[in-house]
Design goal:
two-stranded antiparallel sheet, disordered N terminus, 339 residues, globular, mainly alpha
Length: 339
Amino acid sequence: MTVERRPVMWWGRRAGSRREGSPWTGLWAVTFKELADHLASVRMRVLEGLILLTALGTVVAAIQTIRSVSEAAQEDPFLFLRIFTLTQSIGELDYSFVLFLSFLVPLAGIGLGFDAVNGEHNRRTLSRILSQPIYRDALLAGKFLAGLLTLAISLLALWLLVTGLSIFRLGVIPGGEEVARGLLFFIATVAYGGIWLAVAMFFSVQFRQPATSALAALGVWLFFVLFWPIIPGVVAQVLRPAEDPLSAVAQDQLRLTLSRLSPNTLYSEVLLSLLNPELRALGPVLITPLEALSMVRNAPLPLSQSLLLSWPQFTGMIAALLLLFAGAYVLFQRQEIRA
């Protein structure tokens, strides 16, 4: 007797078979299990301790500087926001709270995601998990949501701690608009960390060794931190030579557009517009947004206008996060998993 064999498709099921139930069955079970693992892991405690110490150090220094200035400066209506943006100097090194976050949050995202999938491969547990009524969709999405929630919980605790410290040390209670800007700053920081979490998870799906995926994710981060700020200027000079004032403006516009392909630039411009209410435009003059915080201040914009100013950059970060997760999702669905 001849037995008909049906070909096995890339998602691990036989041709002609259909999924039973929702592909998101078990999503929250995976999310809460991974969240508990993250919050109890030594790796996350080390990252949280590093972020806490550096952030609180910069905030305490900023509060001391504000307390030492004149009373006129202390009557600033946005005094609470200056804690995040005030730049301190140690020799030739300038630092601030937002500058440290822009460096440390990507490391936290990469630390949470570089072994999300290949760690299950190496422990020989991936096939066991998928043998349960849990689809790959729920597994990958649950791991991503757990990492994002871990970042959100850590950053929310840090934001509340900084807020309480500023009230206690300065004796200034932030107004409603300042709190709203601070919450939007918190949301933007979580989205920025989510981008690097998605990058780490993409490489975790691509490579079977956690060390390789971690090095690849760190390499991408270092590329955007060290080399990308130089590349747009070089490309703009080659493609749009500044032969007259109009071509110089076109060159600056091209350089700004290329620089916004970096999540670091998008995040910096979002923070610049949210935490500096006097800012009225993001243009070629503000190509290094963190340095623009020290520019001459104008009349402050309302929160709605500042949000409108930063909305393209904010949606760009969300789009980058979704595209990177979609790439990891498609790659994970096409992988063959053996017991």
